[in-house]
Design brief:
The chain is built from 13 helices and ten strands. It is of the alpha+beta class. It has three domains: about 110 residues, Acyl-CoA dehydrogenase/oxidase, N-terminal domain (Butyryl-Coa Dehydrogenase, subunit A, domain 1, Orthogonal Bundle), CATH 1.10.540; about 120 residues, Butyryl-CoA Dehydrogenase, subunit A, domain 2 (Beta Barrel); about 160 residues, Up-down Bundle (Butyryl-CoA Dehydrogenase, subunit A, domain 3). It has a four-stranded mixed beta sheet. It has a four-stranded antiparallel beta sheet with strand order 2-3-7-6, with no helix packed on it. Strand 9 and strand 10 form a beta hairpin. The protein is globular and about 80 Å long.
């Protein structure tokens, strides 16, 4: 039996989250850029705590709501309607996936010292893996950590460390054994900020910053360029095992990819709603725009892809909840949902005509935002390459590609 129903308690929670966002969060959007963002976040987080909507995916014993992956996926489909909701509920990126890495791989001492205050909203953490020279190849990292007694000394550079300029901690990957097998050369460290030798060169300007300048400054977490010169970190701040940095990085990115998918679905639904509203109210050549078959076909394609995206996310969440490997499905979903979001937003913008290209609607900003999804947490091409390799490997092992193409469903 295949049961696609969502439990009643999860549906009720989703309705409660939606009501909280509508009544408490959305009214703050017009205040962003008009008053200190830290004050806005503090007020929203106070409201979220009062509503018992705090860190949905973190276990209750660590201060969260203790939701399973399916329930969290359903909730995140509401959270994705506005960036402020994630800030309110302390489940914003890159904080969320990094907290989950500490939860899974951190020592008890690390959890008490770092995870608990992160969940409480007292600290912020970021993730530093990417380097200019390495790009999508995480095993190409050159940042080097060398032993010095019981400490490690880190030298190198990082690029696009989202949120670093406003964080108290950084989860940082560095090469600790250049002679080890390629995927065992790296280790993950927790670095307390600020610290001597850790310099943020700049927050790198992006396409999204350029098109939505009113949300600059405090709102934008920033994507930092960093240099590290003789940064000293104690061995006690190694997260996971020595040489396990690549695996821990992939653990963290796994949740990040599916979270991007959840939020992308929410954004695409908003864009499709705007498109439907537009074509029902707009007349061209004496007829409602929505009466034209070509327009209906455009919307039909968007609806089809949104439907597929929803099924993908819920199936992956189900697999996560039951400890089933999601590496193939997550890569396929990451690709498909990025394409879906770009297509739906582009369609909505097109159906608005010249109005869609202006800043009088949110579509132009969403268009720039959607472009990012083809790059974050691994570019499309790398995920397609990985998926294709597994398709061929499945055929070589089983004589069929089914296991690499959703065959586990039936």
């Amino acid at each position: 039996m295949i049961d696609f129903s969502i439990p009643a308690e999860t549906q009720a929670l989703r309705a409660r989250v939606a009501e909280f966002i509508d009544k408490e969060v959305l009214p703050y959007e017009e205040q962003v850029g008009q008053r200190p963002f830290a004050d806005i976040v503090a007020e929203l987080q106070k409201a979220a705590r009062a509503a018992d909507l705090w860190c949905p995916f973190i276990p209750v014993e660590w201060g969260g709501m203790g939701l399973g992956h399916v329930a969290n996926a359903v909730i995140q489909l509401e959270v994705g309607r506005t960036p402020l909701a994630a800030w309110a509920m302390n489940c914003m990126g890159p904080q969320d996936a990094t907290m989950l890495t500490l939860l899974e791989l951190g020592t008890e001492e690390q959890k008490e010292k770092y995870l608990r205050p992160l969940v409480n909203g007292e600290l912020r953490v970021c993730f530093a893996m990417t380097e200019k020279a390495a790009g999508a190849d995480a095993t190409g990292m050159q940042t080097l950590a060398t032993r010095d007694g019981s400490d490690w000394i880190i030298n190198g550079e990082k690029w696009f460390a989202s949120g670093a300029s406003r964080s108290d901690l950084v989860l940082l990957m560095a090469k600790t054994d250049p002679d080890a097998p390629r995927h065992r050369q790296f280790t993950t460290f927790l670095v307390e900020l600020p610290c001597e030798g850790f310099e943020i060169v700049r927050d790198v300007p992006t396409l999204h910053d350029a098109i939505e300048p009113s949300w600059n400054g405090e709102y934008v977490t920033g994507h930092a360029e960093i240099t590290l010169k003789d940064v000293r970190v104690p061995s006690a701040n190694i997260v996971g095992e020595l040489g396990g940095g690549f695996a821990s990085g992939q653990h963290r990115l796994g949740y990040g990819r599916i979270r991007h998918g959840m939020w992308s679905i929410a954004r695409a639904q908003q864009a499709m709603d705007l498109a439907a509203e537009r074509v029902l109210s707009r007349k061209t050549f004496g007829k409602p725009l929505g009466d034209r078959q070509g327009v209906q076909w455009m919307l039909a394609d968007c609806a089809r892809d949104l439907y597929i995206a929803r099924l993908m996310v819920l199936h992956i969440a189900y697999c996560m909840e039951h400890g089933i490997d999601i590496s193939q499905e997550n890569s396929m979903a990451k690709n498909f949902i990025a394409d879906m979001l770009s297509k739906v937003v582009d369609t909505a913008l097109q159906l608005h005509g010249s109005l869609g290209y202006t800043m009088d609607t949110p579509l132009a900003a969403w268009y720039a935002e959607a472009r990012m999804q083809h790059l974050v947490d691994g570019p499309d091409e790398v995920h397609r390459w990985r998926v294709g390799k597994k398709v061929l490997a499945a055929f070589e092992e089983h004589g069929t590609t089914a296991s690499a193409a959703g065959g586990g469903l039936f």
